[in-house]
Amino acid sequence: MLTRFILIETSHAGNVGGAARALKVMGFDDLVLVKPRWANVLRREETIQRASGANDVLDKARIVETLDEALDGISHLCATAMTPRDFGPPTLAPRAHFSQLLGGGAASEEQGARPQGVGFLFGSERFGMKNEDVYRCHACLSIPTNPGFGSLNLAAAVQLIAYDWREALGSFPLAPATDEQAPADARSVSGMLDHLEQALVAVDFLDPAAPKKLMPRLNQLFNRADPTDEEIHILRGVAKAMLRTADKAKR
Amino acid sequence: MLTRFILIETSHAGNVGGAARALKVMGFDDLVLVKPRWANVLRREETIQRASGANDVLDKARIVETLDEALDGISHLCATAMTPRDFGPPTLAPRAHFSQLLGGGAASEEQGARPQGVGFLFGSERFGMKNEDVYRCHACLSIPTNPGFGSLNLAAAVQLIAYDWREALGSFPLAPATDEQAPADARSVSGMLDHLEQALVAVDFLDPAAPKKLMPRLNQLFNRADPTDEEIHILRGVAKAMLRTADKAKR
User: Fold this and answer.
1) A54 touches chain B (CB under 8 A)
2) Could you tell me which of A156, B50, B71, B212 has the fewest CB atoms within 10 Å of its CB?
3) Would you tell me which residues 186-215 of chain A have a C-beta closer than 8 angstroms to some C-beta of chain B?
4) Residue pLDDT, tens place only, B72-129
């Protein structure tokens, strides 16, 4: 789905770079700046430094004079604002709104089809969004923050919205470690515990005449640990070494 | 729940400030730095600037020499790493893991009680986390990112984890606009549409002899718009003015 991030009257070059990086890391690349403080902001050193390799997003970014010029193809417009506006669109948490917008919510059938394109508006660092810009939006997204300190950095806000939107569209896959293994079955665990029990007796830690609850406790510990076959193998090796050492000690 | 953010060998002062701000905005305040590049990083100008008012988090932050010194009270330790490590803890997406950890997931009953305290570890900007630090963790959190560009800024990663953890613990409330009103009932909408229909006839837009589907279409439009009573009142005012003007035009 067409997804555009629109920064209005941004004053810090670092935030433009940070926003470009935040977009790219979540797989988006459509950035439009409305009347930024610096006309050359896309080429400033601080911008490029904070973009940290998201140069293609900066290269593709557009600078426009009015919000209107940023809205082609966008059928659903979201303001981001800490302070809701009277007579403005409803104030919604991003996750709940995205879920509804994409058909996960109860109201989605009534609301009709998915939007053609979605635009996210971000106001200036000092003044946030102007009322007149908020009024044009279908929703006012408010990231739930500390009631005593809602001061979210602009690039951080872009990052959070980009993340929530990406997760709502369908998350990127995780890269699992290559060796992730299925847990061993209960029979293997039980065999290992028998082996370990012999070893604990051999090193005089467990008294067979008064075992108390040592083995059930170790069983619970290993159940919680969900060992793999390879780990069972390691633990059996430890038991074997304990038995061998105890045997030597007796001689 | 005790929640600590632990930054290991952080090199950029700006990221320490950004992390402090990210914590505070999500209602956390326990920040520990393990061997930061600058011993005075908590008092550097760039740190304080990027913290943007989260000075209390900086004041409370501790600097320690080893990871061990950062772990008091923490019973569940999460690495954050883009690259999973063989023989390391399982690689998990933050949202899924937090839901399971707090009792929302299927495996939670088996896994026993909630942790006493949770620690989130973040490696250095250049090298990420060391294997030996990842191995100590119960989980390796991987924020799902663009497979072609996973370069998440350190403060942005702290912001995303803080946000997901806060949402999992129970979101902060939204501040709704003071005038958010319930939608008008269908009878009010229907009355307004009758009024509007008369007005549309009066201004010669609607031909009663060939109405086509104008009114059902407007009805659908207004149903989707879910107007409030106040908006119905405005629309009736418009209809009234149209009728009055049409009346004058006839004289």
Assistant:
1) yes
2) B212
3) none
4) 999 999 999 877 787 788 899 999 999 999 986 544 444 567 888 999 999 999 999 9
